[in-house]
Amino acid sequence: MSSRLANALVLTGSAALLGGALAFQYLGHLAPCEMCLWQRWPHVAALVLGLAAWAMGSRRGVVALAAVAVLASAGIGYYHAGVEYHWWAGPQACTAPAFAAGTDFITAALASPMIRCDAAAWTLFGVSMAGYNALISTGIGGTALWLLRRRSRR
To answer: What is the pTM of this model?
Structure first.
């Protein structure tokens, strides 16, 4: 029973987070940066694994892999949130460098990425979408693993 509940949590949680991201993108017109897209892939993997586990009767090992995939998205989300809050540097491909004195501003601006990873496109209570993904994915993945572990102790 716990593996089915864990699998349902992973499936619904990942589907909701992906749906939310797509809603922000297509309904809210907030184009994702490169790191935003990175966070989506583990959720896609969790959905595929969760569906495979469901087809096999919620096999615990496959559900555990799906939960770990959700936690991978959380890890990327924490990293991305840190980049947005400027706690550490992000990948140069999607963060804007500081313009040096004497640099042609127009040329430098045109060479900068269009959608920056180091600027939050949306926040609520000071937490960005990457931060919410990190927090919610940690809850989903951690709870799913706890449910799986709880059954094994009986």
So the answer is: 0.83
